[in-house]
TrEMBL record:
Record-linked PANTHER family: SUGAR KINASE
SUPFAM superfamilies the UniProt entry points to: Actin-like ATPase domain
InterPro entries attached to this UniProt entry: ATPase_NBD, Carb_kinase_FGGY, FGGY_C, FGGY_Carb_Kinase, FGGY_N
Domain Carbohydrate kinase FGGY C-terminal, chain residue ranges per copy: 268-456
Protein name as it appears in the record: Xylulokinase
GO MF entries: kinase activity
GO biological process, one term: carbohydrate metabolic process
Keywords for this protein: Kinase, Transferase
Domain Carbohydrate kinase FGGY N-terminal: 4-256
Species assigned in the record: Mesosutterella multiformis
Homology family: Belongs to the FGGY kinase family.
Domain of life: Bacteria
Signal peptide bounds: none
Length: 516
């Protein structure tokens, strides 16, 4: 039946595994949810070994599905995965995690970030494109581990991300073989030279991170090893199947959305709602302190992008469904929620949700999640629309920054799970005053990984033509000018409310929270 390729996405809320054939048709898939832990206020951590276990279980489900459909799992030529770019764990010499996996939702490093930023350094922006430290940067997590993790201080050998951790275990690699691809490297935020794709010894010295802890930097399609006999038995795939170096989730999602050149915008509607714009390199206007934007390298050579984010954007949706609607066992409950919200007018009659469920950032660090302006007339539909619009308001602030720097953003592509919601896509079109386009393949990262697996194993010579074959427009949404005008007025009121009127209230609320 020809060659097959396996890709996985190790995300915040789930692990997804899929197998595609050489015509980029999905022939098997499976996913499992992940577990988020909240041991202290502002702390969010996960278990790196759960990522491995979930991936192995999903792979086994896929190999079983392949056999049922008459495929041979031995025809999978290569395995390629992506994972969280802003999240790391510490490993020992055997390659096993000895710390939690801390990701971008965590705020435990805030005091350290403030201390780093109190001494401005030109080298940050010049070498990384990121002029300031952030609580979501793995560079800051590494500093925290070095200061606070007794296990890492005693036995720590390397810091690795979740996808490389999974891939290392599939290939039976030790810490001495630890790796990171050049795109995920830029997820560190600080500590590297982004244009040269190397660690920066000068930055690491400033950060107090010994270069010995850093994994080697590879291309995403480099072969790092082969599926071991043990993993072959557990997963049902053939021993010796090639294992690639992997990539960053955001980078792969952008490629899966057809972003192959500069000046294109993508809304990655995942757990951390991210709004990305591709560039030719560092744009000084966007790399100024206070911009709130992050700069990264793409998966392909000489590709770069900026992104703004709402850390709990997509997670706020899951929180509302699971914790408020008590529908954690119903993954399809988003559909009736949006059906109710469609009956609510734009602007929710003034009801506002602030999505800062793990705290704010920058000057709004004390911000917390809350609903405002509710009355007895309001219901789940109103509250759900308010949650969707809340993310849109933060997007408006991000897109204003891009447009001020000369990026027009006349068309925006949406990808990942949130892009399936037509109501939300229309809200974004209205709020951002831009055409919104959705492609048929909403989860572009996994099939993109399979295309890279084909490149690594010789199935294709160039990923861009192959990726173009996977991209088919599914729907488009044009902005309603009247709604765009309304949202602009409400946005200005919301900015004043959060940045001025509620600043002292947030401080008081934060002090009340500490007594829990």
């Amino acid at each position: 039946m020809g060659k097959l390729y396996l890709g996985f996405d190790a995300g915040t809320q789930s692990v997804k595994v899929a197998v595609y054939d050489s015509s980029w048709t999905k022939v098997a898939s499976h996913s499992l949810p992940t577990t988020l832990g909240y041991p202290n206020p502002g702390w969010v951590q996960m278990d790196a070994d759960e990522y491995v276990a979930n991936t192995v279980t999903c792979m086994k489900a896929c190999s079983d599905e392949l056999r049922r459909k008459g495929y041979d799992p031995a025809d999978v030529a290569a395995i390629m995965g992506d994972g969280i770019i802003c999240g790391i764990t510490g490993i020992d010499a055997d390659g096993n995690a000895i710390t939690p996996f801390i990701n971008y939702l965590d705020s435990r490093t805030k005091e350290d970030v403030d201390a780093i930023n109190s001494t401005p350094r030109e080298i940050w922006g010049r070498e990384t494109g990121n002029p300031e430290a952030s609580c979501m940067f793995p560079a800051m997590f590494a500093r925290w581990f070095l200061k606070n993790s007794d296990a890492f201080k005693e036995r720590g050998v390397k810091f690795v991300h979740d996808a490389p951790y999974i891939l290392m275990h599939l290939a039976g690699l030790k810490a001495e073989d630890a790796f990171i691809d050049w795109g995920t490297m830029s997820g560190w935020g600080l500590g590297y030279r982004v244009m040269d794709k190397v660690w920066s010894e000068e930055q690491l010295e400033i950060l107090g991170i010994d270069p010995k802890y850093m994994p080697k930097i590879l291309k995403p399609w480099d072969i790092v090893g082969k599926l071991t006999a043990e993993m072959a038995e557990k997963t049902g795939f053939a021993e010796g199947t090639l294992v690639c170096a992997g990539a960053g989730d955001t980078m792969q999602s952008m490629l899966g959305s057809g972003v192959f050149e500069s000046g294109q915008g993508v809304d990655v509607a995942g757990t951390c709602s991210m709004f990305c714009v591709s560039t030719d390199g560092i744009v000084p206007e966007l790399s100024k302190p206070g911009s709130g934007l992050i700069f990264n390298s793409g998966s392909l050579p000489d590709t770069y992008f900026y992104w703004g984010y709402i850390r709990t954007g997509g997670l706020a949706l899951r929180w509302f469904k699971d914790n408020i609607c008590l529908k954690s066992d119903d993954p399809k409950y988003y559909v009736p929620l949006s059906e109710m919200a469609e009956k609510v007018p734009a602007g929710c009659n003034g009801v506002l949700f602030l999505p800062y469920l793990t705290g704010g950032t920058g000057d709004e660090a004390n911000a917390s999640g809350c609903f405002l302006n509710l009355t007895l007339d309001d219901d789940q539909g109103v509250m759900w629309r308010a949650v969707l619009e809340a993310i849109g308001y933060d997007y408006m602030e991000i897109t204003d920054t891009y447009r001020a720097s000369g990026v027009p953003l006349k068309r925006i592509t949406v990808t990942e799970g949130g892009s399936r919601d037509s109501l939300w896509n229309q809200i974004k079109a209205d709020m951002l005053a831009s055409d919104v386009v959705r492609f048929r393949n909403a989860g572009g990262a996994v099939v993109t990984n399979c295309v890279f697996a084909a490149l690594a194993s010789g199935g294709v010579k160039d990923v861009i033509p192959a990726l173009q074959d996977t991209i088919v427009r599914d729907a488009s949404y044009a902005p309603n000018p009247a709604n765009s005008e309304l949202y602009r007025d409400l946005f200005m009121k919301k900015v004043k409310l959060v940045k001025q009127d509620m600043r002292e209230a947030f401080k008081t609320l934060r002090s009340m929270k500490s007594f829990r």
